[in-house]
Design brief:
It contains twelve helices and eleven strands. The chain is α/β, with parallel strands linked by helices and 365 residues long. The chain has one domain: Rossmann fold (3-Layer(aba) Sandwich). The longest helix has 21 residues.
């Protein structure tokens, strides 16, 4: 894959910068680390552990320093930040699974709320940190199950413990900003992404990983809510938004220190069962039927959509891939992995940047 240092993506602002990513061994974190390294950044990772097997983080085998520790360990956090003096922190570390939050609510809240406060405090103490981006989720909104698109000013809430813990993280972010950052050099923002898919995700109780495990084990998978509508997007879409947001803040544009939605721009909504059919059309080995899981022990939202007009108008950010292209690249990633033992991550990133250039969406504003 081409070296991106000379391409002037994001105005070249990440070249030579030290970037701390919490949760770098996770699905989104591993993709973000790759992109930042290609942009010339000095990446430092901080994660509790490698959650899944296989692991996208391990498959990439990138050579950068990762500390395996808990964000609840404030001493360890302080030591790492003091040692490496990051310019910017992308905070992705979280307990990110809805069903797991029902099983372990205390761990979910401890990690997602107190853990976030720990990373914020440790960053504020170190004067090198100029930018902090707290990555949350589209599920932070109080979902009233209608067909409206949720925007950043809508009421926060959450039925399940994961969603409510992330809403608390958003409230914490706003409160921390008002309480401690009025006279600080550190700029703080939050980023809320849609339902992220793409190659290399093997997390529990997520649609694409469940489908791929079913294929690998030759098992039929029961789908919890086939009619549910989600704001599906390729993992590179919100990452381009995070990086563009980080660029503005690193350039000391204080007006961007607020919350942002990064979701798809599709005119049509897509249900779980529609996504499954699209995957099957791209890979003939996926031929199992959709069996609805009627037990439904845990509540999950039926309809969830994001209004990203603020990011479109003020950040000049827009998604690059339509749903068909997103599904194609996601499916082919797993197809290459299982049939050829190859990872398609580098090709996906190159294709995404090339398509962005064709659409004049090259994130230099």
């Amino acid at each position: 894959m081409e070296n991106l240092v000379k391409t002037n993506l994001f105005n070249g602002v990440y070249n030579g910068k030290t970037v701390l990513i919490t949760g770098n061994t996770g699905f989104k974190g591993s993709w973000l680390a790759l992109w930042l390294i290609k942009l010339g950044a000095n990446v430092i990772g901080y994660s509790k552990n490698i959650i899944s097997k296989p692991s996208h983080f391990s498959l990439l085998n990138l050579k950068y320093k990762t500390y395996f520790n808990d964000i609840l360990d404030i001493k360890s956090l302080n030591k790492v930040i003091l040692k490496h003096k990051p310019d910017i922190v992308f905070h992705l570390a979280a307990q990110s699974l809805v069903i797991e939050s029902y099983k372990n609510p205390f761990e979910t809240y401890s990690t997602n709320v107190i853990g976030t406060l720990n990373v914020l405090n440790a960053s504020l103490k170190n004067k090198s940190v100029k930018v902090f981006i707290n990555v949350t989720t589209d599920k932070v909104y109080e979902n009233i199950e209608n067909k409206l698109f949720y925007k950043e000013t809508d009421r926060l809430g959450g039925f399940d413990m994961y969603s409510s813990s992330k809403a608390c993280s958003e409230i914490l972010t706003a409160s921390f900003q008002k309480s401690f950052l009025q006279d600080s050099i550190m700029l703080l923002a939050s980023a809320r992404a849609g339902n992220v898919i793409g190659g290399g995700d093997w997390a529990k109780d997520r649609l694409i990983p469940d489908l791929m495990r079913g294929l690998e084990n030759n098992q039929k998978k029961e789908i919890r809510s086939p009619k549910s509508v989600r704001p599906w997007e390729h993992v590179l879409e919100p990452l381009s938004g995070y990086l563009l947001l980080g660029q503005q803040l690193l350039e000391n544009k204080k007006e961007f220190a607020q919350s942002w939605n990064f979701g798809p721009n599709y005119k049509k909504s897509y249900s779980v069962e529609t996504i499954i059919e699209m995957i099957k059309n791209n890979w003939d080995k996926i031929n199992f039927k959709i069996n609805e899981d009627k037990s439904k022990k845990y509540h999950e939202s039926e309809i969830l959509k994001l209004d990203c007009s603020k990011a479109f108008k003020k950040l000049y950010w827009k998604p690059v891939w339509d749903i068909e292209t997103t599904i194609k690249h996601t499916t082919y990633w797993y197809k290459n992995f299982y049939e050829k033992n190859e990872i398609n991550t580098y090709n996906n990133l190159s294709a995404y940047i090339s398509d962005a250039k064709l659409k004049s969406l090259i994130w230099t504003k």
